[in-house]
Amino acid sequence: MAPTQEIFFHLIVLLNLVIVSRAFPGKIIDRAPDVLQTYDYVVVGGGLSGLVVANRLSEDPGTTVLIIEAGGFTQNEDWVTIPLISSGNVPDLGNGPRGSKYDWNMTGIPQHELFNRSVNTPAGKVIGGGTVLNGMVFNRGSKADYDRWETLGNPRWNFDNLLPHFKKAENFTPPDLSLEAEGWDIEYDPAYHGDHGHVHSSFAPFVWPSTRNYIRAMKELSVPIIKDAMGGNAAGAYWFTQSVNPQSETRSTSQEFYAPSRPNLHLLTGHRVTKVKIKSGKVKGVKFSAGENFTASFVEVSEEVILSAGALHTPQVLQLSGIGERPHLSSLGIETVVDLPGVGWNYHDHTLLFTGQTGKSLLMSNNLALADLNLTVNISPNSGNFSNLTWSAEQLALYKSKKEGPFTTLDGNFFAFLPVEKLANMTALSSAAAAQPTSHYLSSNTPPTVRAGYEAQFSLLTSDLSSSTMAYLEFIFGDKAILPALHQPFSRGSVSINSTSPFDKPVVDPRYLSNPLDLALFVAGFKYARTIRNTEAMQAIDLTETYPGTSVMTDAEIEEFVREGMDTEHHHVGTASMLPRGLGGVVDPKLRVHGVEGLRIVDASVVPMLPAAHLQATLYGLAEMAADLIKPGH
After folding, report:
1. Which pLDDT band, with edges at 50, 70 and 90, does 98 fall under?
2. Structural element, H or E, at residue 601
3. DSSP 3-state of 369
4. Disulfide-capable partner of 254 in 51, 112, 302, 530 (CB 3.0 to 4.6 Å)?
């Protein structure tokens, strides 16, 4: 290009940018009239995945992007930002509905296998979505967890291809050198971490007194201590990172992916997308409204609509738009645009069980005298409330003034993700799985294609029961509790609409424990929690089970205890699964909705099988990979 031509070219580019910036000032809006008539991309949902995708698409200044989010921003309340009390905004385990203004406050229908209990299903109604509500654990599953996705018919969706996208989202801070030097077995490998991403991951600067005992207990039980579980080897015990900004010791959320200074990015808060409009198989735009009694508005889209409403609401939007199982839609008087039976099916979740304990810790950490700490501190699994109000006030003041002490961390530093071989009679479980009719325990009205997809998943679940690298249960370690959690459930549920009003809540039927293999795995997890308590390492601090205690001893009593107390980690996935259409899939490997042009889904609903890990780090990588798939030229 000649010099004069090059100068002319750059002037044209600059002029176009000026025109775009004047016509399209980046801003946060809360009124429908302020929305432009047309955008290149409309992102439905301003949660984790939606903000990542919108951020990456709007990196091109010539591309216009609108995010529509039902909630708003937080006010940075302590119970949102401070790590120890960070889960105080979701329902307490076993204490009934509570929630917060940042939660959809939804509850599943009564569950037959849980003595007809209804279980809360928290989901973020806020900019940042679940990253505002979660407990901030930032970990990944094993390589085999993600390689399963490719095995199910999704080329390139494997750990090796996801790793660069995991790293792209992450801003990792290594542990304090003193923790490494003091023999805490805390290590990391920089090859598995990113240091230029938007979401922070860091190790807590405070170490709970019982952590060293848990480490010793794992060694006593021949459980491997993983150097860095972020690298695809996550079957064992390890220190976990938190999504916490180590400079401020406060929660790091996907809000940090929002770039309000970009003139090509709009964010509409307080509005819900009620329908995706499709004509002749192609998306034309979306309808949205501020509420049931407000007039609906419409915005056109020239490129694509990206659904990121989450595993509980994405199927609702699809069904309201005429995408779903024809008989179900017809029963509600909705015209079928695409007969896609998989919409809303394949729901599954991580579930956990609280078991309480007491003991005596004599360790010191962070130069704080912590003798008998767990006798003066009572931490519930979700709220972080302290019973000793004077001590609590002192520690909160320490956090506020110096960003030190127990408020900088969750209720624990270290946990384990274990394969079945460590927990139970693997042969008996494998035999029970092999003898089970493959899809016998699915709902009787499960569509044939969904049933076929489950059979493919069931095959993987049963074969991996004997794997030493595939974790099936998590063990969350705290001073006051051990919580076994099921991470490879065999049970499957559904999310569906029973009304044509987009403002009615969808029907969530998790069908927890509907497959008896899940109950057997929970019983094994409960017993293993007792095995951990009985190690020499834990008995050194006189650890004693206080709940349920000796009243629950036989297998039948344990099963009843599980049914009465099982709760959710609110890691909902699968309701718009990335699977072939013949296996009940809703999206293809490029996350395009089967049978529709210009509509993709990027959120937890596309995950076909849960990894054995808390979900946020996985979803950041998924959303980063999705953005590259959507960008023109990739």
Report:
1. low
2. strand 599-601
3. strand
4. 51
Q: Residue 26, annotated ligand binder?
A: no
**Residues present in the chain in total:** 634
Model confidence pLDDT, tens digit, residues 546-587: 999 999 999 999 999 999 999 999 999 999 999 999 999 999
Report how far apart, in Å, the C-alpha atoms of 461 and of each of 70, 192, 466, 489, 576 are.
36, 27, 10, 8, 20
**pLDDT bracket for residue 27 (50, 70, 90):** confident
Is 161 within any annotated ligand binding site? no
| 209 touches 363 (CB < 8 A) | yes
The crossing angle, in degrees rounded to 10, of helices 555-565 and 516-533 is 100
- DSSP output for 202-266: E--S---TTHHHHHHHHHHTT--B-S-GGGS--SEEEE-EESEETTTTEE--GGGG--TT-TTEE
The gap between the terminal CA atoms of the chain, to the nearest Å, is 26
CB atoms closer than 10 angstroms to residue 133? 27
Amino acid 502: pLDDT: 97
State the chain's mean pLDDT as an integer: 89
State pLDDT tens for residues 502-558.
999 999 999 999 999 999 999 999 999 999 999 999 999 999 999 999 999 999 999
576 and 315 Cβ atoms separated by less than 8 Å: yes
Q: Which of 535, 545, 79, 70 is nearest to 314 (CA)?
A: 70
**Residue 344 assigned as binding residue:** no
Whether 571 sits among the annotated catalytic residues: the reply is: yes
At residue 444, what are phi and psi to the nearest 5 degrees?
Answer: -60, -25
pLDDT, one tens digit per residue, over 116-125 is 999 999 999 9
Tell me the C-alpha distance between 535 and 530, whole Å. 9
Supply the DSSP symbol for 560.
Answer: H
Rounded Cα–Cα distance for residues 179 and 365 (Å): 10
Kindly name the residue from 193, 313, 570, 614 that is annotated as catalytic. 614
Establish whether 126 is an annotated binding residue. Answer: yes
Tens digits of residue pLDDT in 198-246: 999 999 999 998 999 999 999 999 999 999 999 999 999 999 999 999 9
| Cβ-based neighbours of 393, under 8 Å, separated by 6 or more | none
Helix H or strand E segment including 144: helix 143-151
How does pLDDT run across 542-551, given as a tens digit for each residue? 999 999 999 9
d(CA 77, CA 546): 33
Instruction: Confirm whether 594 is a catalytic residue.
Output: no
Residue-level pLDDT at 360:
83
User: Which one from 328, 348, 571, 572 is the annotated catalytic residue?
Assistant: 571
Provide the H-helix boundaries in 72-113: 78-81
Residues 6 or more apart from 392 whose CB is under 8 A from it? 377, 386
Q: Are 338 and 593 in contact (CB under 8 A)?
A: yes
Please report the pLDDT score of residue 370 as a whole number: 31
